Amino acid sequence: MSIQAVAKKAGVSVATVSRAFNFPDKVTPATRMLVEQVARELGYLPNASARTLRTQRSRVLGVVLPTLLNPTFAECLHGIASAAHAAGYAILPLTTAYEIAQEEEAVGRLIAANVDGMILVVSNPGTSAALARLQAGHGPYVLAYNRHPGHPCVSVDSEAASAEVVQRLVALGHRRIAMVSGTLAASDRAQQRYRGYLKGMAAAGLKAPPLLEVPFVETAVDAVSRHLRQRDRPTALFCSNDLLAIRSIRAAAQAGLQVPRDLAVVGFDGIALGEDLTPMLSTVAQPNSEIGARSVELLVQALASGQRLAPSSGLLLPHAFRAGESCGPVSSRKAD
Amino acid sequence: MSIQAVAKKAGVSVATVSRAFNFPDKVTPATRMLVEQVARELGYLPNASARTLRTQRSRVLGVVLPTLLNPTFAECLHGIASAAHAAGYAILPLTTAYEIAQEEEAVGRLIAANVDGMILVVSNPGTSAALARLQAGHGPYVLAYNRHPGHPCVSVDSEAASAEVVQRLVALGHRRIAMVSGTLAASDRAQQRYRGYLKGMAAAGLKAPPLLEVPFVETAVDAVSRHLRQRDRPTALFCSNDLLAIRSIRAAAQAGLQVPRDLAVVGFDGIALGEDLTPMLSTVAQPNSEIGARSVELLVQALASGQRLAPSSGLLLPHAFRAGESCGPVSSRKAD
DNA sequence: CTGTTAGCGCTTTCAA
DNA sequence: TTGAAAGCGCTAACAG
């Protein structure tokens, strides 16, 4: 079904059909209705590739995410998809499995696909070759979750949020507060969260035990559980993300500890599922869906004005500590 | 960066550049290397829209899913994305929020986007206008999770799996086994699972209590909890999906019951997160990622052979009961 | 208000 | 082995 067929059947020119679709008020109502009628009969749908080729805009936004298996990013993509749809854009999502090489490849594929703009979550904005390439041209882009002065970013203040978590745990009587994280090098978020933790500990005059860095999710439960069997085990665990927090709760059970009675566990991310768990997960809730939606809005705005996005146009969205049942006061058994 | 620029700089024709990329052995090695060199220098990437317009294939697969907020579908999309990438395809995912009207709209958008094929999860294959449209033309498609004799489907045998769950619960001593489901009308899966449950109950000579249909997720916990406070409350709950199972565990706690001691809870879907929960979720594990991957494979195969997919080419993948800690024998307190 | 036409970047005959 | 040229479906001057 092409515009030609519609034109012929309606007895008008292709230009008129095109106008009827794109600028309905540039044709007489009679013509417009005729064209619409014929188009409907023929089941005509404008060919997106032809339109893109001609106009040099695809109305597609590229999205680069680490993975969809972490609900954080699935929620974010949900927000992106909704906002994009509302603004008349489709999305082309690519995942990187946290691998730098895949970030670069993804950007290349998106450029080739003529996306109008990109939203990306990268490992490390400071050293990303993919970003360097984007800065060289190829339309506007925004980083989500990342934070870096050289790029427009939509995120929360992870560092402050983490320090705040420590402060809350201290207020609950905890002194031995350990942090559990995935590979620090794998993401700037992990680094920011750890930095915030250290800051919080220092502010409370506490000595931070060594970071429990868990390289592989498969072994997370065992690693944490082993850690919890030590003498002078922590009474509270601050986990770098909700998935780790969930596994830490499991690790606690495995070590014979009950959450929150024997161990307080706090996560980071605010995945929706956390609210349905028993015990309900305590976490730093990020507006995941909104992070995605706002990123789209920035992009759409930039697209409309023909500008690229300045680093200063980024957004720092509010986070909120979600007090769940996985976090309670230190018990007398644990206090020393 | 167009093919023209590369041709000019390399001192060859555009046809040669095109061949160097698409049929490397149709040009002399020297020419090929020259072209590749120049292309690299210029950062040339073939324009996907132009290629699509010319060849009438986009190398994009459309995906229609209910939502990304249910990890089941996020996992499936993960499988789709991986398999598609491996086969040289990109994906264009659209979500419908379980709304029929959105299914139709999505299919329209995908057709306009020139996708080469589609993978969809619909509410009800039997009555779907979107599917009727696909059957009329527009390339091959596969349904995932759905099951219907008139369409190629990749799924598990939900009915048998559900009957099997009942059988296991009965073997554990349970007699009062209730089923919790979302709106039955919203999906054929829910209907199949309920049918399997009824079958299983009948096979065990048990009377099935009325289905506990929970229309809104927001009220699920309250509804189930209220149900659990009744006299002659069930000793086991079979939930139509894992998200409901997780909420049911919460509902149990709210009703003062401990899982699995006072109540056995079994889900359906096999989301990865279930294995990390405490208690670990008992569930019917579907190979979610594989369902996506196999759907892609069918599509790619059909695309290669230029055939559309026959309903009989669908796949019934094996499910597995994943015995978690949320399900145990009926306790003496509960047995009557 | 409507029609004619060039051309977006690419692939693919057809000829050389 | 390589080049010239047509044309995929559409939009946007430009002309009428």
TrEMBL record, chains A, B:
<keyword id="KW-0804">Transcription</keyword>
<dbReference type="InterPro" id="IPR010982">
    <property type="entry name" value="Lambda_DNA-bd_dom_sf"/>
</dbReference>
<dbReference type="Pfam" id="PF00356">
    <property type="entry name" value="LacI"/>
</dbReference>
<dbReference type="Pfam" id="PF13377">
    <property type="entry name" value="Peripla_BP_3"/>
</dbReference>
<dbReference type="InterPro" id="IPR000843">
    <property type="entry name" value="HTH_LacI"/>
</dbReference>
<protein>
    <submittedName>
        <fullName>LacI family DNA-binding transcriptional regulator</fullName>
    </submittedName>
</protein>
<dbReference type="GO" id="GO:0003700">
    <property type="term" value="F:DNA-binding transcription factor activity"/>
</dbReference>
<dbReference type="InterPro" id="IPR046335">
    <property type="entry name" value="LacI/GalR-like_sensor"/>
</dbReference>
<dbReference type="InterPro" id="IPR028082">
    <property type="entry name" value="Peripla_BP_I"/>
</dbReference>
<dbReference type="GO" id="GO:0000976">
    <property type="term" value="F:transcription cis-regulatory region binding"/>
</dbReference>
<keyword id="KW-0805">Transcription regulation</keyword>
<feature type="domain" description="HTH lacI-type">
    <location>
        <begin position="1"/>
        <end position="55"/>
    </location>
</feature>
<keyword id="KW-0238">DNA-binding</keyword>
